[in-house]
Amino acid sequence: MQTLIPESMSTPVSGPQTSNEKHGMTHANQTFEQLAEPFRRELRLHCYRMLGSLHEAEDLVQETYLRAWRNFASFEGRAPLRAWLYRIATHACLDAIASRKHGPRLLPDQKVPATNQMPDGKPPAEASWIEPYPDAYLEGIADDAPSPEVRYSSREAVQLAFVAVIQQLPPRQRATLLLCDVLGWSTLEAAALLGGTTASVNSARQRARETLARRYPDGRPPVASASNPGQQALLARYVRTWEERDLDGFVALLREEAVYTMPPQPQWYAGRDSIHRFFDWAWKHYLDFRLLPTAANRQPAFALYSRRSADAAWEAHSLHLLTLEQDAIASLTLFVKPTAPDLFKAFGLPLALTDTDRTA
Q1: Per the CB 3.0–4.6 Å rule, which of 7, 129, 243, 251 could disulfide with 263?
Q2: What is the mean pLDDT of each run of 10 residues along the chain (360 residues)?
Q3: For position 143, what pLDDT does the model report?
Q4: Residue 221 and residue 165: Cα distance in Å, rounded?
């Protein structure tokens, strides 16, 4: 079990302690860990949805546990511990959003028009983009809340595009949508957590739904089945076209109106022709590619390694997230350098491969 209490805070900073006092504090710390630790994964996911960042979510869930531990003695059990922790986590996220120097984390296609220009390799220093979320962190979290309040399933509400579009909501609307339409809280419960009336929560929820309806006219994001044999064959072809450097074959896997983004670069490309021109330019800088399967945001994903010469090492290059629609790729997001190495570490992926490593 991960230690929740910093060692430097395990005892008061002033005054001697009796053995009974020390025993009582140790017992309280152990009790807090035992009660609170089972909620860590779902709280981290909640923070990720609020912030759009894996790394910020890690920091904020730790902040949540620190705040909760400091106030555990005053927790009187008048509300369930889970609800109390969500209250702390949500307000910690709202505080973090309010203190940001830059705007919300988005994807490039939400901020600037598509281009046909090639990037210069220098992403803007101030840019902060959406980050992917490892499926390994979703293990042990229920896929659906058994509440009539739920509008979006857990699988829908973790997709990269969904997380990106809710970042465009004002923070309070975002929190309301997540609490009510994703987690299944009632408007009364959400009002108690956020502060305010049920009418204000219902109003914020309705405005949030209207924003999402502009992105999802059918009322919900499409969800592709990972077990579909046709899609599994499509993913196998995707790997093969990259490793064989078959550019025409790769582009043929895309929908005609496909979108390609590559955070932290701000440029993005729309349509097969533009995407073909980009990769015709980009692939000339590399000799070989190798892909390893992974999983992120309940979407197909791959870790790509590259080398520029036959005697060079295979280095971590980019993390690929694919959105599939029927029998083609509707969108492709590559998280590239300089952020890629940190993401590889978070996903438990090696930063280099040997020639004996093979794709699964």
Answers
A1: 129
A2: 37 40 49 90 97 96 95 80 95 96 92 93 78 94 68 89 96 97 94 94 95 84 73 95 98 97 95 98 96 95 95 94 92 92 94 69
A3: 62
A4: 11
Euclidean distance between CA atoms 342 and 349, whole angstroms: 10
Q: How many Å apart are CA 293 and CA 232, to the nearest integer?
A: 12
Give the side-chain half-sphere CA count within 13 A for 355.
3
| CB distance 186 to 192 below 8 Å | no
> What six digits make up the tokens of 16?
């001697």
Q: Which pLDDT belongs to residue 84?
A: 94
Element (H, E) at 295: strand 288-296
Whole-number pLDDT of residue 218? 77
> How far is it, in rounded angstroms, from Cα 134 to Cα 6?
26
Q: H or E segment at 325?
A: strand 314-325
Quote the CA–CA distance of 135 and 299 in Å, as a whole number. Answer: 9
| pLDDT for the residue 29 | 62
Cβ neighbours of 295 (radius 10 Å): 18
Rounded Cα distance between 189 and 82, Å, is 12
- Using an 8 Å Cβ cutoff, are 188 and 202 in contact? no
Tell me the whole-structure pTM to 2 decimals.
Answer: 0.88
DSSP letter for each residue of 5-18: S-GGGSS-SSS---
Contact predicate 299/162, CB 8 Å = no
| Spatial separation of the C-alpha atoms in residues 177 and 161, rounded to whole Å | 16
Q: Measured between alpha carbons, how far is residue 228 from residues 39, 127, 326, 330 in Å? A: 32, 37, 9, 16
Cα–Cα distance, 93 to 166 (Å, whole number): 14
Q: In the chain, what are the domains?
A: 20-100 (1.10.1740.10), 152-219 (1.10.10.10), 229-353 (3.10.450.50)
C-alpha 144, offset from chain centre? 18
Q: How far apart are CA 158 and CA 138, in angstroms?
A: 10
Of residues 319, 305, 308, the one with CA closest to residue 347 = 319
